[in-house]
Fold each of these.
Amino acid sequence: MVENAVKFPDDTDTLERFVRVTDSVEVAEELSTLLGRAPLFSEFTHDDIKALAEYMGVYRAQPNETIIREGEIGDHMLLIVRGEVDILKRGMQREQQHMTSVGAGTTIGEMSMIDGEPRFATCRTTQATTFGVLTRDNMAKIILEQPQLGAKILVKLVTMLSARLRQTSAKLMRFMDGVH
């Protein structure tokens, strides 16, 4: 197997301001803390996590750091391992509006990783936060090199995105019906 440092690119420029965990064993240990807690890993084994860790980078951010910025192009998704992140969206007058807060086990940025479109919202840490990063290129490598793992990840991502779309549609319908 190839070392984590080789599979996960060192030049992920938008992440260079964060402290990176470079030890592949520590990366796997960080990710395995989410087994049974993260929707993405609900059907994963320890071996799946160990294999996935070779394709991911793990970073640490301090409180009040922007880890994703609305409107920027992004080719990676983040998996919150520890900590909490506020999701903020610019309103009509360009002011930041708080949409929600997410914690350990939540993925963010997956839409841009998949479709290459600009980031939909800004994500800012509210406390010291550890997060895993999966790039689009590494997702493609997983699909080619470990197709069963790639299929598991894709099915989970599609399921999670579908659930979010259903929740958003339900909220929109309540809003349209005048029930906030």
Note: The two ends are 52 Å apart (CA to CA).
Amino acid sequence: MVQTVAVPIAAPRPPCYDAQVNGARGPTVSIVIPCYNEEVNLRAGCLAHVASYAAQADDIAEILVVDDGSADASRDLVASLAATHGKLRLLAEPHRGKAGAVIAGILAARGSYVLFTDMDQATPIAELDKLRPYVQQGYDVIVGSRKGRRAGAPLVRRLMATGFILLRRLILDLGEVTDTQCGFKTLKTDVARAVCQRLRIFRPGVQHASGAAVTAGFDAELLFVARRMGARSVEVPVTWQYVGTRRVHPLRESWRGLKGLLLIRGAAARGEYDGAPALSSATQASSQTEAVGPSERPRAAAPPS
């Protein structure tokens, strides 16, 4: 049984969202946040900011925090915050790794779309406002992209990110997607579930990592399968700020990412993705990913009066 505890008051922080939230009504969105030993970020107020943003946005149906078997006070802190925020739900799961937590959130989501984002809010939740026009246009997959901008990231992390992009392009065809690893993606919920059922490396219900891990291959396989199924996709620039952590080792995660890409390529060569059912005719209009620049971005609808 989860024990409810009082959430300590964190030091004041500038809000991570614009006070003028876009309240345009449209398809509902479930926000999925994987959580593994996130006590530091929870006490810093990251989830509280997301909950405050969601309370002002009519189209956000819920925030699903998927706890991946945390060993710290994360579950208690989330449960305590959920008691005062009606849209916030805690989904307690066994430890499977980040990919397993995201998949569990997708399967439990109630909204028409599912957005998965990180607890540290390296991409602030307010960046959803840049994705909303494409949600309203009915895109199947909307990929938040840093477009090469990694503010605050150490040089070694930027070099490793560039190397991963080059290797990914050589190994997997993801169309025009340039950034698979920005933790800010939105998919139609039914499309996301259909894609998850076709995953071969990061299968639902299987432990994919032990401890804190990025599991870069999961995002790549998700987008790879979606493309093969004819998903209508778009890549949209979003703001991103480096958040340092000692929980994830860059070299180890780079190797895991490369290994994931090779496993996906091998599964594809063996025909394991063949025969994937195409998405409905409404989503087959374009299987090409569209890259959007800031000047091309449609204007978001104004908040309701």
Note: The domain at 29-295 is CATH 3.90.550.10 (Spore Coat Polysaccharide Biosynthesis Protein SpsA; Chain A).
